[in-house]
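S1.2 Input.
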Amino acid sequence: MDDVMLAVGTQKGLFLARREGGGGRWEMDGPHFPMQAVYSVGIDTRRAVPRLLVGADSSHFGPSVFRSDDLGASWQEPSRPAVRFPADTGTSLERVWQLHPAGPASPDVVWAGTQPGALFRSQDGGESFELVRSLWEHPQRPQWEAGFGGQAVHTVVTHPTDAERVTVAVSTGGVYRSQDGGASWAPSNSGVQATFLPEEQRYPEFGQCVHKIAQDAADPERLYLQNHGGVYRSDDGGARWEGIADGLPAEFGFAVATHKSRGDVAYVFPVAADSFRMPPDFRCRVYRTEDAGRSWTALSDGLPEVPSYGVVLRDALWTDDGDPGGVYFGNRNGEVYASADQGDTWELVAAHLPDVLCVRAAVV
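S1.3 Output.
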């Protein structure tokens, strides 16, 4: 079997873990970029040698995007910022929330989502990026509000065979879709509640606080969405959404991930409530559906017993592309857990890390 690489972005740097042949001990090194908050990591496996992309925030130098073509042994930073707002926008970059290598239909394209809420596109594998002005200049953008974590484009989903189809999620703007490679965008939030609005305004055209979107492995038209109150599924590429939270201990949460090779399989980590951001009943549990959200199973073998207080953030739950498929998450307690059997059993990879912000994993 090939090795598995696990990248853990924290409030104080990046940690990289490797496990040979999918078994044995995890070997971890770091922190890379010490004392920089790492909110975004991309592992680009479309190349002969995987490329690591890291969005790191320095309190002194500001945010930047770094890349490594030797699995983290060395890092390169462009001489000028890879992601920056053009001067005419009158805006400066606060954070790179997302680094998303596009599908095989666009082998050199990498998308970056930022705070303030904007989308950038790279055509050279993440070495330089250009602002997607069509989204930045969308007439609804000035009405997007800032979520609790800031106002940002934090999720990018691309169609695996149609490079023209791109879906993004914005806090708090909701879901926006492009059918023409980013030339134009339309809100796509039908059926998703904005639970923080008065009851008669609960289903607006836009303004929902979407926390994460993930795409089904077998059917790219099927998407899963964790909202600020509600878990949803769409079977038509995001045109309409239906609730699938029945069977979960709570509708609130941040993260959702899908199995990389099995259709209808998705994972969430529920949080008790907006006003009580801890695991329900203080139990550390990942929930898995194997029937596209019709039912959910609590996964706990190897996870800590009660009480547990660590919450999993929007990008801190991930799956790899191995067989049978690994699942990984990190929490705000600085713990990282891994499952090599699709979530049936778990092991502790690391403890006492800084606050875990994002997790990525891939077979390399």
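S1.4 Remarks. The mean pLDDT is 95.
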